Amino acid sequence: MADTVQGFSNVRRTRFWQKGFLASQSAYVLAALIVIIAIMALLSPNFLTPGNIANITRNFSFIAIATLGITLVIITGGIDLSVGSTMALSATVTSLVLSGLAGAAIALFPGGALILAVLAGLATAAAIGFANGFAVAKLKLSPFVTTLGTLSIVRGLTYVATYGRGAFPTGPDKDLFIAVTAGRLFDLIPISFIYLLILAIAMYLALHHTAWGRYVFAIGGNESAGRLTGVPVDRVKIQVYMLCSLAAGFNGIIISGWLGSAPANLATAYELTIIAAAVIGGANLAGGVGGAAGAIIGCVLIEVIRNGLVLARVDPYWQQTLVGCIIVAAVLVDRLRSLRNG
Amino acid sequence: MSLLELHGVSKEFGAIRALHDVSFSVRPGEIVGLMGDNGAGKSTLVKIVSGIYPPSAGHLSFEGSDAHIASPAEARRLGIETVYQDLALADNLTAAANIFLGRELKYNVGPFRFLRHNAMNARAAELFAELKSETRSDDLVKQMSGGQRQAVAIARTRLADAKLILMDEPTAAISVRQVAEVLSLIHRLKEAGIAVILISHRMPDVFAVCERIIVMRRGNKVADKPIGETSPEEVTALITGAKEAA
Question: What region holds the ABC transporter domain (chain B) (predicted)?
Answer without folding.
Answer: 4-243
